[in-house]
Amino acid sequence: MTSTAEVSQAHVRPANRIAGLLRDYAELTKARITALIVATAWSGYFFGAHKSGAPALSLELIHALLGIGLVSSGTAALNEVLESAVDARMRRTAQRPLPAGRMTRTHAAAVGLTLTLGGSLYLAHFCNPLTGLLALLTALVYLAAYTPLKKVSPMCTFVGAFPGAMPVLLGWAAARARVEIEALILFSIMFVWQFPHFLSIAWLYREDYESGGIRMLPVVHADGQSTIWRILAYSAVLIPVSILPTIMGMAGRVYLVGAVLMGAALFRVSLGMAYPKLAATATASKPAARRLLRATILYLPLLCALMMANSIR
Fold it and tell me: What CA–CA distances, in Å, run from 105 to 111, 163, 242, 289?
């Protein structure tokens, strides 16, 4: 006779398997990063719709964000397929579905291709062909240029900043069916912001990247000075770049003041990487890198939210 405990266990096991599979899919598609990409795409759509006099909240917005989210998820999955061997050598990625053996490369590749191509076609059909094409090209640059370059040169960060800045431009294109100067301004803010953000990550996980053969700047130049100067330079440049929306009449004076103050605060946190002078290999340098990473994570959504709240029609 089957006991109550055995019956209960039989019900729990399938539920656990489904929950585990969902967690693996979320990790494969980098759900948290995709959420940030979708949020920044929303900012681009907002300003595109604003210029057109169209409502900021609409069915078209849902189509745009869903399509961009699909392409982003698929690109992330294909990236994990390409880097599964590298991920297996790095402590923070070794438990991802592919290196941990919970999912096959064939399965992950099928998911990634379906999402990337399906999302691009979805955008082309429900938004406009330009958005679908740009989304597909973004995925191709990320996978065919940035991903392999990570094993070759620190230039990968610069190359990767182009597809990394595309979400706002995709959002604008979804609303306007064209690329305009305002979209390029939003793109430039995203482009510059990525350097203090990703260089702080590279510093924080330097040993992991070295184990994986990823040639990030702190790995190639372990004294850290070239990384620090780039962090400071891009953090400084971010201040004038971030006020361009006010100059172009996209946002008002409240945004201007907020952008300058937030930019100055981010630069101040960046200075924490420079003093005292510590090598990227020094354990004592990690807290400053972690503070900078947190600052960049706060900076971008706050800047976008303030820009949208103080937008000018």
Answer: 10, 24, 41, 33
